[in-house]
Amino acid sequence: MKIRSLLCLVLSLLTIGPASLSADDSAPLTYEIDLRTVREGFDGKTCWVQARAGAIPQSDDFPATVVLTMQKLLLTGSDVFYALNEMRTNDGKNWIGPIKHETLARRRLSDTREIAICDFTPGWHAKTKKLLGTGHSVRYENNKVMHVRKRSVAYSVYNQQDHTWSDWTTMSMPDESRFEDCGAGSAQRWDLQDGTILLPVYFKPKKEKQYSTTVVLCDFDGEKLTYKKHGSTHTVPVKRGLYEPSITKFQQKYYLTMRNDDKGYVSVSDDGLNYSKPVVWKFGDGEELGNYNTQQHWVTHSDGLFLVYTRRGANNDHVFRHRAPLFMAEVDPATLRVKRDTERIIVPEKGARMGNFAVVNISPSETWVVVAEWMQPIGIEKYGSNNRVYTSRIKWSRPSKTE
């Protein structure tokens, strides 16, 4: 009898085990938010902006070495950026930096003109085991942005051994006039399993007002980024068109979100290169999302597609272009609409804009949204901002599954 009872118990456990796992997998995906401040402090003349991070996998207690880049901005100008700096952590708690990198600094072109790299986003490239950062170039004359200028896709590669970045350089695009002003500023890219990269870019042909967005298929050998081909191009006849695009992949389809001066747009693709006609971001009930004139980025889990964005209508009229707080909500991939009842604030606003941010996967169980309080216009510190650099750590109820 004892043996029979033991056998029954074993059979019972074998039956219950898989059923329990299945029940866990079928439960709604949830997450907790752990908001942390990496650094803070405002000198009243400059501020840290464009805070974005990449994660280098490691096998110690913490799953990744996180390399965060950011650059100083002169408050009395518009997009007047200086050299990129690095902050770094191996445990998620203690940070080294900021460390200035001369290889990511301005270069003098003449007595009055300089060129710099900006809107930089680091990302791990698994095939070459390199951290690759992409952005674009910006030109200055007498320390003011040259609005009639050539923009290029710019990039740099990180050396993990000595913690340096290579001299930033540019990727050659097809020799066509429309690509003379082409950049990958603030873009969220997608790396394919074979190591090729889907890099969203935007460009403006000569004498045209609107930017167009496309996705470029690139090769990367660990040192050089090379154009292979590009997909469909998209714009809208509204002010500056479609620009600052970001891409993700979810359940065998690719999704592209794009900035416009009046409204954010989204599109979908089967192959990552050719996209449907862009549509305005809306909530599920048909009301427009309210995002405008700033970026949106993706947070992607195998069991859910999410958008991080800013919008009007959140008691935030005092914030420049309503670029704070940062919201996160689930997207219905079938309708390309945001599920209003899932919307959460993941970084609260204290008067400063936070439209320039990035997303980095730390592990299958944790994703970070990295952002800095941009201290323009002058005087917004009265609302409590202090040029904080935040990591909003999204901790999933279950790990994301890889493809």
From TrEMBL:
Swiss-Prot/TrEMBL keywords: Signal
UniProt cross-references to InterPro entries, sorted A to Z: Sialidase_sf
Record's signal peptide: 1-23
Highest taxon listed in the record's lineage: Bacteria
Name this polypeptide is given: Sialidase
Organism from which the protein derives: Gimesia chilikensis
